[in-house]
Amino acid sequence: MAATVFKRSHGFYYLRLFSPQQEIWLSLRTKNRTQAKLRAAVLHGRLASATLHLEGVRRMTREDMKGIVRQYVKETLERCEEDRADRTTITETEREATYYGLSDGFDAASDQLRTNDLTAIAPTVDELLSTHGLSLAKDSTEYRVFSRLVLQGLIGVLKVEGERWDGVEEPLDLHPSPPAAVNGTSKRLQGTPLPPPTKPLSAVITAYFKEHKREPRTDSQIKAGFDKFMKCIGGDCPIGDVTKEQCRTYKEGMAAQGLSVSSINKYLHGLSHLLAWAKGTGLRTGCLDESGGWAADQEASRRQAAEAQSVHR
To answer: Which strands form 13-18's sheet, in the order they lie side by side?
Structure first.
């Protein structure tokens, strides 16, 4: 709003704020012209700052927040990939240390989201708001909602980076789009024989260890997790028959046995890596999605997955 200083008939000065829609008069409580100008400048500045703040809050819709978080995740993953590409070589010791550091960071961030502890993520939130020229009151609901979205984005970054450092890369989609359906049935599926039976889980595990050379201690820990899973599902079976329900039972069983969150997460990630590798090499052709991440608490895992999906839509 435009502003001018006027002296009324009784001698006191007023600050006049006006726009095409409205006009406001505010008393400056002085008859001294110099003092009136100083008070008018201060008052006008405060009003302008408050207006910008309110406009920032009003502009910050939930979709705006999600857009900022999506950009933050994309740019962070790109920086991580560039940093990895700049390295001449990556030793096994360096890879394992980085992976377990990311796993610990994932556990910590997941716990912060579960307990609604937004202290650690606050500097990142403030930096994102400043970068985009936005302002939210730190005690407002909008600030806390945005903080939770940023924290979910960080969890997604840590998960993807953990998988990349463990050798699981999302493959490029080089396949053409599925053929159009005819009478509700895809042309590709008409007359197509059923896929051959998948290999036994035990055979896939053997092939997995032959391809992935790690330290003996690490291999022993990963194999212990596979043994636990096979015992949970009642023994060997075709890997294509493994279901999400079995993975969920496996997770719940470890929690019931009193295993630590860190141990459960490492066993779950080992299983996820095996399934992803088997799918990438064609050893698994079933429709099972990759196991549900590293979070050990089942309800928290479901909630985090649902919230993360809403951020990346």
So the answer is: 2-7, 13-18, 23-27
Question: Nearest Cα to 284, choosing from 198, 209, 205, 171?
Answer: 198
Q: How far apart are CA 135 and CA 223, in angstroms?
A: 50
Residue 35: partners with Cβ closer than 8 Å, 6 or more residues away: 28
- Whole-angstrom Cα distance, residue 269 to residue 290? 10
Using one digit for the tens of pLDDT, what is the confidence trace for 266-301?
A: 888 888 888 887 877 776 554 444 433 333 334 444
3-state secondary structure of 24: strand
Q: Helix or strand or coil: residue 90?
A: coil
At CB < 8 A and 24+ separation, what contacts does 48-57 make? 52/135, 53/135, 53/137, 56/133, 56/134, 56/135, 56/136, 57/135, 57/136, 57/137, 57/140, 57/142
Phi, psi of 148 (to 5 degrees): -65, -40
Are 41 and 15 in contact, with CB atoms under 8 Å apart? Answer: no
